[in-house]
Write a structure and sequence with these properties.
alpha+beta, 2 domains, 4-stranded mixed β-sheet, 6 helices, 12% strand, binds FE2/S2 (inorganic) cluster
Length: 149
């Protein structure tokens, strides 16, 4: 059990807050930790797994140092997000939902980032980038590389 569990009441309503807590602490939800949450709340493990898999906010694998989220919404689709995603997959050598072997990048997709006026959009490490094109993508990767050196 993670020490911080004791700050949560052993109540069914704390399933999501506890899962969020574990994810904040570890970065994802390992299977054993979902078991720990179940034991702590005295609930069946299947219930915890059911909740965790229902919400897209929960991750079951470790993420890369940089998380790139490409919008798959209609506005972005119409304005060429397909090309952006293909380029990203080609640069990173992974497809959406995967993390590079060196754990530097994770590539994800989302239904809409809520910034349709800036389509095609993507988010890198929590920051929204709009009106993306190959040139901007190249600059962005150069900036990330520069930060790491
Ligand atoms: S469709 Fe891409 S931000 Fe809304």
């Amino acid at each position: 059990m993670i020490a911080g569990f004791s700050g949560f009441e052993r109540d069914k309503s704390n399933v999501i807050p506890l899962l969020q807590y574990v994810q904040r602490e570890i970065g994802f939800l390992p299977g054993n930790m979902m078991g720990e949450v179940a034991d702590y709340l005295r609930l069946p493990k299947a219930h915890i797994y059911g909740v965790a898999t229902f919400y897209s906010q929960f991750r079951f694998k470790p993420q890369g140092e940089h998380v790139i989220t490409v919008c798959e919404g209609t506005a972005c689709h119409v304005r060429g997000r397909g090309e952006i995603r293909k380029k990203l997959e080609s640069i990173l050598g992974i497809t959406a939902g995967e993390t590079t072997e060196d754990r530097m990048f994770s590539l994800e997709t989302v239904a809409c980032l809520g910034s349709c006026a800036l389509a095609p959009t993507m988010v890198v490490d929590g920051r929204v980038y709009g009106k993306m094109n190959e040139k901007k993508l190249k600059k962005l990767f150069e900036a990330i590389k520069f930060k790491q050196e």
